[in-house]
Design brief:
It contains three helices and nine strands; from the N terminus they run E-E-E-H-H-E-E-E-E-E-E-H. With 133 residues, the chain is α+β, with helices and mostly antiparallel strands.
Length: 133
């Protein structure tokens, strides 16, 4: 189970267990992609062929993993959130609060519109994957 992946001073940490990876958060995402038989770049290239959106494409790998970045992919302070583990969302003016369980929650500066666009893309990719079966 992965709630989110966050860069800290000494590398990326994977929550909820706060496992230190020794890599950046983006590198952790790339390794997860490889475990799901694709590369990060190949995934983005393929999704860009079938979806009109070009930027901040969520990485939908399975029914357990659908990651989206809170900033640009390569930004050091970007957090990769696993949409599939979010239990509750609280929308404030320009902040979205992601609640994973009673202990873990993140407040991210993001508009409701941007978050809803990401969720829409996640469901489009999931629907496309289902159509392949």
């Amino acid at each position: 189970m992965i709630y989110y992946i966050k860069n800290e001073v000494d590398g990326a940490y994977v929550y909820p267990n706060r496992r230190r990876s020794g890599y950046t958060a983006l590198s952790v995402i790339k390794k997860i992609c490889l475990k799901h038989l694709t590369t990060f770049d190949a995934y983005l290239k393929t999704v860009r062929l079938i979806m009109p959106d070009r930027y901040k494409i969520p990485i939908v790998l399975s029914s357990r993993y659908a990651f989206f970045s809170t900033k640009s992919y390569r930004a050091v302070d970007s957090i990769w959130i696993n949409y599939m583990e979010v239990k509750e969302i609280v929308y404030l003016r320009k902040i979205v609060i992601f609640i994973f369980d009673e202990k873990y929650k993140l407040s991210i500066e993001m508009t409701t519109k941007n978050y809803q666009r990401l969720v829409s893309l996640i469901f489009k990719v999931l629907k496309y994957r289902e159509s392949l079966d």
